[in-house]
């Protein structure tokens, strides 16, 4: 029996049983099973000794390219050949798997055949139903136990075979990707990860580690420590890159806001200049006072935004709609005022514009007041905190009065 045939032992016994039932040659079945068991026990003895020559040769022929490629990812040694060699343990359950397969198969066959014989005898009328029931009740637990042992043995043998495939794929590398192990066994990545983790727990990879992302099997402590150090360095570099990226984004956003703020300030200055220019042309004192007040309020609004750029969004509508409309009304008033003949319609239009300017001035003053709302709240909070601290320190007037009264 070759080294990879242990997991097929149950299938061999199954084929023997089916052949014996088909040919009704149970004597040959006994010889075949005895021979198979003998070979299996010989394999058990040899598996408890040194590794086979084939395994040694496979280890020697490990892929240096794969080892170099994996090392390039995580381990930045000047001489990567100085990495420690992997540490492997024995395949846990190899012997138990062989024995379980052999004796579980024999028990399954023996007790199965016994139950089959009883059922045949009962069907032929050779034995009564009572004896049949009792016999089956006695034999069934043994048959079930044999099946459990057989299945467990087959699973252990298959795990042993996978372990040997892992060893063949690893060679002398200090670590290997889970993807490579998956390709070597034809199993899914999830299965391989669970399988390797179980093997580490069972001591088949005594110094084995799985990285946090579960992408690599690292086969000794020194390489794992090196991996951790490299990974920590990479994480620090990533954090630094993220900080730099965030700083660049903030600087870019600041420049964008500064450009927008400068543009808005230029717009505000232009509107204030045009209002002042119109005011110099108009001779009526009442309208001149209104325009002077309007210019002052507009300038203060833009001064507030210049000191508090975060309030820029709050004056977008003011800049894009209210100011152009206001300037249009003022220019209309100036055009009407140029007319040498002031008819009833012109007078009425000028009066309506003058009244509208009162409303506009009041609205702009309310806007200016709302822009200072947050500042006023911050100042109020600072005052409350300061008063509380002074009171705690006994420095308020009321505290001085209480101290004075106590002295008196």
Notable characteristics:
3-stranded antiparallel β-sheet, 14 helices, 3 strands, about 75% helix
| Total of helices | 14
Give Rg in angstroms. 47 Å
The low-confidence runs, each spanning 5 or more residues with pLDDT under 50, are 1-7, 47-81
Task: Find the count of extended strands (DSSP E, 2+ residues).
Answer: 3
Tell me about the largest β-sheet: 3 strands, antiparallel
Structural class: mainly alpha
| N-to-C order of helices and strands | HHHHHHEHHEEHHHHHH
Q: How would you write the strand order of the largest sheet?
A: 1-3-2
Q: What characteristic shape results from the CA principal axes?
A: elongated
Domains, number: 2
The helical percent reads over 70%
Distance between the termini: 112 Å
Q: How much β-strand is present in the residues? A: under 5%
Whole-number mean pLDDT: 75
Summed up:
The chain is mostly helical.
Structure description:
The protein is mainly α. It has 2 domains: 6-219, no CATH class; 262-371. The chain is 77% helix and 2% strand. It contains 14 helices and 3 strands. It has helices at residues 9-23, 26-47, 53-60, 64-74, 94-124, 129-170, 178-185, 189-201, 221-281, 285-307, 316-338, 344-371, 373-392, 397-407, and strands spanning 175-177, 209-210, 216-218. It has a 3-stranded antiparallel sheet. Helix 6 packs across helix 7 (178-185). The longest helix is centred in the middle third of the chain and has 61 residues, at 221-281. It starts with 8 loop residues before the first helix and ends with a helix.
């Amino acid at each position: 029996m070759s080294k990879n045939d242990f997991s097929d032992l149950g299938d061999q016994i199954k084929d023997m049983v089916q052949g014996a039932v088909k040919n009704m040659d149970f004597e040959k079945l006994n010889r075949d099973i005895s021979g198979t068991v003998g070979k299996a026990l010989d394999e058990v003895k040899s598996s408890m000794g040194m590794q086979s020559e084939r395994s040694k040769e496979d280890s020697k022929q490990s892929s240096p390219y794969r080892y170099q490629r994996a090392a390039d990812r995580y381990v930045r040694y000047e001489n990567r050949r100085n990495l420690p060699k992997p540490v492997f343990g024995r395949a846990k359950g190899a012997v138990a798997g062989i024995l379980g397969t052999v004796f579980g198969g024999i028990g399954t066959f023996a007790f199965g055949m016994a139950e089959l014989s009883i059922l045949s005898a009962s069907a032929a009328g050779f034995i009564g139903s009572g004896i049949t029931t009792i016999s089956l009740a006695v034999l069934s637990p043994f048959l079930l136990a044999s099946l459990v042992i057989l299945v467990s043995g087959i699973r252990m043998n298959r795990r042993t075979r996978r372990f040997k495939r892992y060893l063949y794929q690893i060679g002398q590398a200090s670590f290997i990707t889970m993807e490579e192990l998956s390709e070597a066994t034809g199993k899914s990545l999830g299965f391989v990860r669970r399988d390797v983790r179980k093997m580490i727990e069972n001591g088949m990879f005594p110094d084995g580690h799985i990285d946090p992302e579960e992408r690599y099997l690292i086969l000794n402590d020194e390489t794992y420590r090196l991996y951790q150090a490299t990974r920590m360095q990479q994480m620090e570099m990533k954090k630094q890159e993220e900080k730099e990226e965030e700083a660049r984004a903030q600087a870019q956003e600041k420049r964008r806001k500064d450009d927008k703020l400068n543009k808005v300030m230029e717009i505000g200055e232009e509107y204030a200049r045009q209002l002042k220019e119109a005011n110099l042309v108009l001779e009526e004192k009442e309208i001149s006072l209104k325009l002077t007040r309007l210019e002052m309020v507009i300038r203060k609004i833009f001064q507030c935004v210049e000191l508090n750029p975060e309030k820029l969004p709050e004056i977008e509508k003011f800049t894009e709609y209210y100011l152009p409309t206001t300037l249009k009304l003022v220019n209309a008033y100036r055009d009407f005022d140029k007319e040498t003949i002031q008819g009833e319609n012109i007078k009425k239009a000028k009066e309506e514009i003058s009244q509208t300017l009162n409303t506009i001035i009041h609205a702009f003053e309310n806007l200016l007041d709302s822009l200072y709302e947050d500042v006023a709240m911050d100042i109020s909070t600072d005052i409350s905190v300061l008063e509380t601290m002074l009171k705690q320190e006994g420095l308020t007037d009321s505290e001085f009065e209480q101290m004075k009264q106590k002295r008196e």
